[in-house]
Amino acid sequence: MSELIGKRLKKYRQARGLSISQLSAQSGVAKSYLSFIERENTCNPTVHILEVLASVLGIPVHWLLMDDSMGKLDSEWIALVNKAIDIGVTKEQFKEYLFLKNQFNEIH
């Protein structure tokens, strides 16, 4: 399980556009420990550490724990969603956009 945690952590960190140093600074988790986790050299990051990292990355903690929890989203989609969140797009606004886009597609 930890092997996958390290890969997932790296994927979400990179999708967020953060270096290990930046994630360390924002989370308070030592850079060396983050690197250790990402290189899959440890099998026991604590739940607290995972919660802190998930919070900084703007993802639910279970995304670090569960295989393929992002479904079809690749790192580009994740980066786009994070950008939308950063500029203040709400879930309601995004749902409205999808609704209107669907209506437009049905007409044309």
Describe this structure as you would to a colleague.
With 108 residues, this protein is mainly alpha-helical. It has seven helices and no strands.
The fraction of residues assigned to DSSP E strands is under 5%
Structural class: mainly alpha
Shape: elongated
- Global mean pLDDT: 85
Distance between the terminal alpha carbons, to the nearest Å?
47 Å
Question: What's the total helix number?
Answer: 7
Order of helices and strands: HHHHHHH
Largest sheet: none
- How many beta-strand segments? 0
Radius of gyration: 16 Å
What tags apply to this protein structure?
108 residues; mainly alpha; 7 helices; 69% helix; 0% strand
Question: How are the elements arranged and paired?
Answer:
Blueprint (H helix, E strand, L loop, with lengths): L1 H14 L4 H8 L3 H8 L8 H11 L4 H4 L9 H12 L4 H17 L1
Helix pairs in contact: 1-6
What is the gist of this entry?
Helices cover about 70% and strands about 0% of the residues. It is mostly helical and about 110 residues long.
